[in-house]
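Appendix B. Chain record.
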Amino acid sequence: MKMKKFVCYFTGLTMAISLAACGNNQKKAEQKKTPAAVTSTVPAQPIAQAPAATASPVKGKVLEVKDASGYTYIRLDDGSKDGIWAAIPKSDLKVGEEVTLQGGSVMENFTSKTLGKTFDKIIFASGVLRAGDKAAGDFASAAAAGSGAAAMSSGGSAGSIVPFKNLKITKATGPDAHTVGELYAQRKALNAKHIVIRGQVVKISKNIMGKNWIHIQDGTGNPMQNTHDLVITTQDIAAKGDIVTVTGVVEADKDFGSGYKYDVIIEQAKVVKDAAPKGAK
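C-alpha cells predicted for this chain:
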C-alpha cells in the first residue's frame, strides 16, 4: 500500500514538473516573438543631446551649402567618408572653398525643422576663416593651446565659450534683474547700465589682466548664436558649479583688442555665492 502511494506521488510530481517545463518553453517561445512585434510599433525618435566642445579646430573644403533661417549649413570634407556638417551665422560661402571653423560645439541627432533634416552630428560655430586669412593660423594655434585670443573671447572667435548646459536657474529679483538670454537680446539698450543676474559658474580663469574672468549660464540663450554663455570680470572669486548672484555694469560690443572681443560682458562685477541650503553638508 505504501509503495502504491509512493508511486502515485512520484508520478504526480513528475507530471507537475513536465507541465511546468512545457509552460516555460512556451513562454520562452512567445518572448522570442514579442520584441519584433513591439519594437516595430514604436518608431525611433532622435534624442537631442547637450553639445560638447570640439577637441580642435575643424577645417576642410566646402562640399555643400544650405541657407535657412539666418544660418548657413555647410558640409565639409574633413577627411571622413561623408564629411561633417556645421551651422554658422549666415555667410556667403561657395562650394570648393577651404575654411576653418571658429570654435564650435557638437550636437548629435539634431533636427532642423526648416531644412526638414536630422543630422547625426553637427558642429555649431560662430563663423569661419577662409584659407589665406592672416588670422587663420593664429586662431588654430591659440585654440589648440587653449590660450590667447581664442581662449578669452566670447561672441568673437568663441574659442572659449562653454558648451550649453541644460540648467534651470531661478532668475534674480528686482527691476534690474535679467537672464543671460535677455542680456544678449537687450545689450544695446542696457549698455553702461547696472544689472543683476543669477547663474551657475561653468568656467573661471584667474588673474588675467588683473581680473578674474568667470563664465556663467542659467539655461537661457541660444547655443546656435552663442548667446547662452556670459562672461563677467571681477576681483571676487568663485568655484565651478557655484550658483552666484552677480551685479555689475553691462558693456556691449566690447573690444579689448588682440581678439579679446565680446558681444556683451559684465564688468566691475560683484559676485555673491548663494548660501547653502539648511542641512546641507
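Further analysis of this model is presented in Appendix C.
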